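Intended use. Records like the one below are meant for learning the mapping from a protein sequence to its folded structure. Do not use them to infer anything beyond what is encoded.
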Amino acid sequence: MQKTLAYTFRMFPYKDELPFKKVSVFGKLNNDIKNFCNEILTTKPDRIVGFAESMEKFSTVERYAINQFNQHKRILSVAPDIYELNVPVELTKLFQVRTTPTTSFCNLSMLKIMHFLKENNLNIPFTFIHVSQNDLKKCQNIFN
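Structure written out for the chain above:
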């Protein structure tokens, strides 16, 4: 069984329905991301999965994290413009894969975590899903 480190955000309405015993909840984004990265070092997970609520009627898997917040601001001056995230094949069969990156708080978390992984030479697959409530059961089937 894979050891998964999962996170979501304070405003995510389905925290209790996620298929993990423990899920980190980000409220104070920068502090919580820093703590989560420290947890990555101590737990050495086999994979990392982030969740946010889909604003669409369908769920999407993020393919990219970009070094941009909102329309103009760079997130990290020392990071590259883009990181490619892990998109497991089993998720592509169930959810759409987003081909254009977002520039929201979700993207900010993805970029900072991916940068941390690369900086520390950690080859840990990292997936991010914008999930609808209807698709939560599908996540349970994949991650359990």
